[in-house]
Amino acid sequence: MQITTPFIKLDSFLKAENAVSSGGEAKVMIAEGYISVNGEVELRRGRKLYPGDRVVFGKRKFTVEAA
Hints:
globular, 31% strand, Structural Genomics Hypothetical 15.5 Kd Protein In mrcA-pckA Intergenic Region, Chain A, single chain, alpha+beta
């Protein structure tokens, strides 16, 4: 996914990628440890993602890119 801002928060990223259907679902998935960022489980929904960061949710893999 390409972003036009310096960063995007993890929960917003998951919604933008349609990996989750709502912010509430994103909150639960993150809190339960289903999301990893750069190879480490991330439990903070407000985690700032920058270009080059890699997000994994189940079998889905995403990379943050600068626009």
